[in-house]
Amino acid sequence: MTERNPKEQERDATLRLIYTTTAAWRKNVAASGPEKYTEAFIKKQIEEFDLGKRHLANMMGEDPETFTQEDIDRAIAYLFPSGLFDKRARPMMKHPSEIFPEQRKIQWGEDGRPFHFLFYTGKQSYYSLMHETYEKLLNVQKHQDQLVAQGFSLQKEKKNLVGSRWLTKTELEGMLLEKLSDDDYSRFIRLLEKLMTLPCSDIEENYIKKFSKEIAVQLQKVSTEPLKYDEQGVAFSTGEGVRKTSRATAVVYDNGTGKITVNGIDILRYFPVLQDREQLLFPFQFLDRVGKHDAICTVSGGGRSSQAGAIRLATAKALRSFVTETEVEFMRQAGLLTVDPRVRERKKPGQEGARRKFTWKKR
Amino acid sequence: MLRSVKGFICRPLKLDHGYALHMAAKDCFSSVVSQDVQTPAEKPRAIFYTNESDPAQHSEQHEGRHYSIPLEEVKAVFPHGLPYRFQQQIKTFQEACVMVRKPALELFTYLKNSNFAHPVVRYVIYGERGTGKTMTLCHVVHFCARQGWLVLHIPDAHLWVKNCKELMQSSYNKERLDQPLQASFWLRNFRTTNEHFLKEIKTQQKYVWGKRDSTEQGRPLGEVVEQGLTRVKNASDAVGVVLKEIKQQCCLGSFRVLVAVDGVNALWGRTTLKKEDKSPVSPEELTLVYNLRKMVMNNWSGGAVVTTLSQTGSLFKPSSAHLPHELLGKEGFDALDPFVPILVPNYTEREFESCYHYYLHCRWLQHEKARTEDGKEELRFLSGCNPWQLERLSAPL
């Protein structure tokens, strides 16, 4: 009995040690966050990229020294042709800084002390940014006071704010590499706007420019073609339109009675459905020129609805030549001049259609 | 900066407009609306309306205008001739307004100047779908009825070659087939139209219907019609007898006969009927069609034959076919040749305006945008000046 006791105790002790749940062993993937790339890893990737670039240039028979990113893209598209719709899914070869997202380096040294003095606030970059901006503000105010003391009048020219916008929250997060809340973001923007409104903020214009972006001008300057004149002296103009798989061309004549012919057949017989004829009516009605133009159209491909849409686009494009610039802008905003990008979605394997799944059977 | 996109707003709203606009409701509405709405509406009535209710007096000056037929006359002259939608329109507006159009005027001149001693001239009214062929035919029927002609109006010959529930073997001729229901229906309407003629015309030979029934020679034709209606089995034969008698006696010249057939291409096409052994029936095996074909021949004189081609009810013909040659087929064309073709086109500008103002006057177009010029242009574009399309478009407005 006494001999057994220490062995029992040992066994009990070992039993107690072994008794842990399997859940504790499994690695918690989600909690560890996104994959962390070490600096050495990134450096290696950059070296490999440069080497690969030179090999590619050699393969294509071009000079490795003057091989730009566009050349790389063209070469890859040539060597690995892909029919995938999404451009991001196609094979690509880009500099590692574009592929691997920027990550924050370790914020503390070997002794465990953080580098930045605001580390323990939790949002060090945000607060440091706020401090910086406020510093600039104080700077400007000081300058202002100096000018007032010297006797200069303060005049603020109205800066044109139309062409620029502030960075969005996501863009700012990308810049600072840390998460912001909506409140933080709005505070920052308010501070920037306050800085903008001060008369002498021109000093800090460079700093402010870092946080603003130009809005790209929407209007693509598509030049409208001039009117052409045929034998009798009647003005006409042509336009082309596409919708799904239909292709249409329209020739719109002036001094007409509102008669429209499609492939040699009157629209009343070619489009028996009212909806299609309403589509054709839309461009003319929008410009208040319902009975004034004649049109001769040819269309091929697609079904009745897509043919109607294609002809509508073609007539709208043709009517641009008859109409003033402002009206063209109105047409564009009404959506008469935009090509409808919707096409038939592909059927996926494992599903009955593009979206429809097979009937779900419980057992 | 963005202008209100009026192009979108201009779409006509699909208002729910039932056909049950009672006359009383219309009166209430007109009394509620202020006085000044009435006076401008009355003045331009001359654009689309004419008081001349006798078709014989219609001439080019009345072209494009509507004239109204009194409702009792409608019941007497057209028990079965008018298109279904027009009948509903009559019920809604409580008046039957027909537009005077060029093809009808043309036909009137021909009829007035025709020599009744010569064999009958056959007129074929043809045109695209919904352009007003049946309405032209009804106009001509009204004209002849006013003139005192005997009118043989077959509203739709297609009804005789399809959807027949009862087909019996003919007692008169073993190979032919009878259609008692259609025949009795037609006889009833024929009686309503031509009451006084039935008493005047006398039979010229004895007809034996069965073991106990027979009609003696010299009896009024009304008796034959009664016989057909009471003994439904003999209805088709009664129809045949009526047609034969009329044809024989018309040559004598005591009265004029107008044979008005709508959808005459049914007589020479195919049928959808089948015999008991599932073999298809050809049109000449039907008694009604056989007799009607004899009537449409030009071997008699003293009247006129006005027919319409119709693609809508036709069997086994493509929807784009509307010329006589396509719809009649070789057989029909040869049978009807020679004939005078009359094309019925879509509305002209004037006729369209007239129809539009008529609908406005009857307050059929309720949408406020319909009263504007833009609305009119839109209607013109969307309907393509086709009467049928215009009617269908303005119904929900």
UniProtKB/TrEMBL annotation, chain A:
Residues 344-363 are annotated as: Disordered. One of its GO terms (biological process) is translation. Keywords: Mitochondrion, Ribonucleoprotein, Ribosomal protein, Transit peptide. Its main location: mitochondrion. GO terms for molecular function: structural constituent of ribosome. GO terms for cellular component: intracellular organelle lumen; mitochondrial inner membrane; ribonucleoprotein complex; ribosome. It is found in: Mitochondrion. Signal peptide: none annotated. Belongs to the universal ribosomal protein uS9 family. This is Small ribosomal subunit protein uS9m.
Automatic annotation (TrEMBL), chain B:
The gene is DAP3. It is found in: Mitochondrion. This is Small ribosomal subunit protein mS29. One of its GO terms (cellular component) is small ribosomal subunit. SUPFAM superfamilies: P-loop containing nucleoside triphosphate hydrolases (SSF52540). Belongs to the mitochondrion-specific ribosomal protein mS29 family. Keywords: Mitochondrion, Ribonucleoprotein, Ribosomal protein, Transit peptide. GO terms for biological process: apoptotic process. It holds the Pfam family DAP3.
